[in-house]
Fold this sequence. Notes:
By secondary structure, the chain is α+β, with helices and mostly antiparallel strands. The chain has helices spanning about 30-45, 75-90, 120-130, and strands spanning about 5, 10, 15-20, 50-55, 60-70, 110-115, 135-140, 145. It has one domain (about 5-145): Transposase IS200-like (Alpha-Beta Plaits). It has 3 helices and 8 strands; from the N terminus they run βββαββαβαββ. The strands form 3 sheets. It has a 4-stranded antiparallel β-sheet with strand order 4-5-3-6, with helices on both faces. The chain has a two-stranded antiparallel ribbon with strand order 1-2. A hairpin with a 2-residue loop joins β7 and β8 (about 145). α1 crosses α2. The protein is globular.
Amino acid sequence: MSIYIHKAHNVSVLLxxxxxxxxxxxxxxxxxxxxxxxxxxxxxxQRYEMHFVEIGADGDHVHFLIQSVxxxxxxxxxxxxxxxxxxxxxxxxxxxxxxxxxxQFWTDGYFVNSVGRSNSETVIQKYIRNQGxxxxxxxxxxxxxxxx
Length: 148
């Protein structure tokens, strides 16, 4: 859950939904990579003013729900997260570098979206938490599906 961040001259609740895709959409995010990824994110939180509210991996991409301060732009957050994660994952996970094209972990781009604190935060947090898990679909009518 997000918190109010109190600084000398401001109070903020800034949340971002960041999605980073593996180079070539290769399925390189295994359970070992996922565990290391979460450990590295904890280390990033200790060094930078970023709090990872939720992290969810799904084989070829990772969703992050990140809370930060107003002095960090969404671009700076994305660059910081992607560069540190790529460097550290390639160092820590044996054989990962060989399975990637040109030893690059992420694609050049990313998706980032600001998230409201009320309803949309919990919806996105739940969505990210369920990444990589089988989806339960129920058919309501022949033209409509509903996710439980």
